[in-house]
Fold:
Amino acid sequence: DIQLTQSPSSLSASVGDSITITCQASQHINDKLNWYQQKPGKAPKLLIYDASDLETGVPSRFSGSGSGTSFSLRISGLQPEDIATYYCQQFGSLPTFGQGTRLEIK
Amino acid sequence: QVQLQESGPGLVRPSETLSLICTVSGDSMSNYYWSWIRQSPGKGLEWIGYVYYSGYTNYNPSLKSRVTISVDTAKNQFSLTLKSVTAADTAVYYCARHYYGSGQRFDYWGQGTLVTVSS
Structure:
């Protein structure tokens, strides 16, 4: 299995701030990395695919970057509705997910 | 707009078989892969396996001996069976469309259904 390690596991930021979540893969996966947002009681929602492509309908304040083993998700200009847990997920081999990053608004 | 809906028992006895169905609406199942994913507090999000509309399957090796996923395109449904369940199989189970093109991603998800394994 390819392991994905996210950091931080949680963070708190203010409305309008920019934040970055990182995801480290245990093996090289090219750009086969997706990001999801999950709100309490809801299913995960696809935000970014292939490391940097924005899913249709997702606000442009979300962006992704990286390749190989190191990836990041950036939210520029936090909004209250961004309170959620964020997961990375790889398709370099059989799918696995990171452990999640819980985002709180101060 | 593609929609997925899971259905099945919310309570399963230990050692018995968990069975869930996912009903797909808004699009044909043809030319897509369809996955089951579960989420538990202890193990986070875990991919269980997928089925192609043709019936081809691929499973997570950690569950492969107990899992069967099948598809019924005439009913626009695919199903999950998990044998010999234990408390460790208690989780929210999601079905998802597994886009498999230039890249791969889970682009549409059901709302999830909680399955508790308990006597």
Notes: Chain A has a mean pLDDT of 96. The interface with chain B takes residues 31-32, 34, 36, 42-46, 49-50, 53, 55, 87, 89, 91, 94-97, 99-100 of chain A (CB under 8 Å). The two ends of chain A are 36 Å apart (CA to CA).
